[in-house]
Amino acid sequence: MIRISTRALFNVGVAAAALTAMPAFAQEAPSAPAQAAAEDSTAGDLDIVVTARRREENLLDVPVAITAFTGDGLQRQGAIDITDIADTTPNITVETSRGTNSTLTAFIRGVGQQDPVAGFEAGVGLYLDDVYLNRPQAAVLDIYDLQRIEVLRGPQGTLYGRNTIGGAIKYVTKNLNPDDAELSIRGNLGEYDQADLVATGSIPLTQDFRIGGSVARLSRGGFGDNLTNGLENYNKDVWAARFTAEAGSHDTVFFRLSGDYTHDRSNPRNGHRLIPGLQSGAPVLDDVYDTRAGLDTPHQDVKAYGVAGRLEWAATDTLTFKNILAWRKDRSATPIDFDALPAADVDVPAIYQNRQWSEEFQAVYESDKLQGVAGFYYLDARAGNIFDVVLDTTGVPLGLPGFTASTFGDVRTKTWAVFGDFTYNFTDQFAVSLGGRYTEDKRHAIVIRKNLIGGASPALGGGGVQFGALTSNFEGEKTFKEFTPRASVSFKPTENHTLYASYSKGFKGGGFDPRGLSTAAPDINGDGVRDPAEIFDYFLFDPEKVDSYEIGWKGSVLDNRLRFALAGFYADYKDVQVPGSVGAVINGVPTFVGVTTNAGKATFKGVEFETQAILARDFGVSGDRLNFSGTLGYIDAQYDQFVTNVPGKGPVDVADFRRIQNTPKWTLSGTLDYDVPIGTGSIDASTTVSYRSKTFQFESPSPFLDQPGYALWDASIVWTSEDQRYTIGLHAKNILDKQYITSGYQFLATDPVTAVPLRTAQGQVIPSLGKEGVVTTFYGNPRQVFASFGVKF
User: How far apart are alpha carbons 424 and 18 in whole angstroms?
Assistant: First the structure.
């Protein structure tokens, strides 16, 4: 589960790793009473209920690879935000994207999306209470007011709001107590001036109506400093709130209205240069969390908010209707200093905006022989961005002062789908599931690019004025259609074992590159003119598709003292979307060019294993328990075809020199957890070690950015009172203070085939954009030790 805890744990010689807080291989974790039953049961009566297929089922019956984390378990482990789940979930990467605390990068089984620019949709669907989040901005959700986090691996298109080609991550908040008023306060205090406070309460106003909410203040000082402007680097300054009103009962008619608001006022997260300044000679800084970035406009500010209404009607004993209507909006203003130096050289001030509303209707049917769901989904979203690339062009032939390439992009998405997924039980042991989804994705894009001199765009706080004609004035529209089926068979040789095999097809719609440059479009027919059709084809990228096959075995043995899930998968990935940007000189003007290609083909094959075991009971004192939880993920991910245009050679297949990004071959974790009753309460001590093998940041390997394999060690010790009212904990994360790269930027001239950086006769790298050379990295959090406390009234 999440890593975390304290040195005090080791000073008293307690070795442990949390089964109670470790993930269950289910979509829905058990409630607190069910969890307690899991801990205390020695018989075969454990019954974990999950909702992976939009209906309640026993975990062992579900033919899907799922991992779930309870909110209480994550809090005991000291988890801060949703990225903490990555250490103990096989074959996933979930991390904060580069320049902010709030933008999410997620990959599952090699499929994902790193670039947060409007026009690109993630390959992993993120859901907040079953509402799909269309953009990754403001998607790094903090751990508060949480019931569970669910991770579904593999395509989930027949069941979830968007065609999630890689998988889905679901953030599920708590339901309100229908019977009693509640109030709880939770906080953290620790190193780097960490100070978090969360207050949560609810009250039933009548027998059938209740309201509740949470307010959170999450703050921390920086891990480093900006030596140019004096700001703290990697700090945190977040206010957040949620409100919920519920009426009725799930047995008849139930309605839930929820709203949430997050305001992140943290400083910009600026990177650390790995090479000296090629023009200024600025040396590499000693502290990897320090920076010299000079850009601070626009002022960093991230806001996200939304409302959702959920209506459920139990029409009969076997048929339930559900409707989810939601509206969301977010805005991120961020200064991105690629070169991480005071000079205005590859500085990118940016504003990202998104608004969306969605409607989903479901009909859920459950009888003895037949169970399933059918539904309709509609999304209307508008994502826009304006960003500049400010370059130092002094000394170039044109001699332009403060040259800026300014881009405005607006992408509208209207998509609808019908879906269904049903299971028929031929016998108590044998069942077949069939599902399908038909999707229509309509994209409409406007991309306007122009050159400025004198600084950044006025909309971004600069004084730049247009120089010359527009370099892009593009408008395009295209609709993508696809049917994606899913099928599985499952066999239960005994009540506690399930064997299954499944096939599913994933689909992610195409679109238009919002960073495209019309004047860089190739003259395909050689007539000396870039006609509209050539420009349209240049901006357009096609849908990507994956055919995924999976076999699995889920089981429970030794009277439920040992549970496990084993899955093997193979995926055939076609028309892989690879967004990127490169430096170029167009008509004598240095600039950047967005380049999105459908690389060709890739294959993924691998194995995932998760286990939970009760190793011992009552061996030290009466009532104590020692548990072990472990995960292992292996994936062999490779490009089979990756075609790129090489100057002087034309199209060349460079698959042998490209790698699948953000997808380590090995992901492993092991957790020990020791729980012992003491006086009027109990102590839970846990420790987790997790490992990730070498990770490539982009498709083109980089000797600077790619992170070699590394391990992280966390630990926690938490005291809980007998009546569950009080908790006090001590947590340590990244105990050995490992420095590891999570993301970065590189703009260097490279060999077009091998992607190896080119060098001068003196051995110096050659910049492809700007003068200083861009090799900038961002690092995971250093060692953090903090105390937690909680009280319930």
Answer: 37
